[in-house]
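Subject: for your reference before the review

Hello V.,

The reviewers asked for a structural picture of the protein, and I figured it would be easier to keep everything in one thread rather than splitting it across files. Below is the amino acid sequence we used in the manuscript, unchanged from the supplementary table.
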Amino acid sequence: MSVRAIYHVIRWLIRDTLSQALTSGVFWFMTAVSAVTILICLTASVPSEASDRLELGFGIISLPAENGMPSVVRSTEVMLATVVADVVGLLLALLWTAGFLPGFLESSTASVLLAKPAPRWVLLTGKIVGVLTFVALQTAVFVTGTWFALGVRTGVWDATYLFCIPLLVLHFAVFFSFSAMLAVMTRSPTACVFGSVLFWGLCWGMNLGRHVTHVVPELHGVSTVLAASTEIGYWVLPKPFDFELSISDHLQPGDVFFRLVSTQRLSEHNAWSPIASLMASVAAAAVLLGLATYEFVSADY
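And here is what came back from the structure prediction:
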């Protein structure tokens, strides 16, 4: 199959996935979440009687601004990127997109697609790229919209915040690879929903636990076997907490946003390498996608 033909197949599958997101309501749910968050950011204001704080939600949320407006806006963006988008948004995206691949892999649907002269790996790749394209568009809407809203209301235009978009999409792609593997093996949306969330929780716990053993002095004397097991688990599994730390460090270098574990404290113990961490997560995703592709190519329809 020529490169041009592969391109056309993948492009068609991307369009089909976006259409599926629209008709299933997933697009509107995710857009609604972004819209509500953007509207809250549009309520940002500095009270006339005191310029030492920033209020959101018509005063429901009050954030101190002793270090100036740029600092409190940056802190707000850290919360939006790490908590709202990178944790809540990621889990919601995994839940809402869990049915995309199982439905695509059902015998009635797959048999029609497999009758076409396109390799199975191209079909699976096209569908996965379609889901990632959809999530990337939603991420861009959320980040760009909240950035614009805060900029309009505060006059602080922090372009650094926009660079969170690729990190957020990469984080989703890593864990969607596990969902894709479950979809191919089980063809069950329920398995994809619970499996993906449980896997994310396991990885998050392993990731945080490894860092805690490095920065908490009382844990420096743990057994060699436990320390080695924790280190192996950390490097083998994807690292969701490191994505949060990377985003936080990107937006607020030097600030201790995570009081228990920060990149500064990890660096003091030679336990923080963001590039190696992200590359290890990407490698884990590549292995999971490889297993999914092998299973799909060898499956009997």
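For the response letter, the relevant points are probably these. The mean pLDDT is 86. The chain has one domain: 3-298.

Happy to draft the paragraph if you're swamped.

O.
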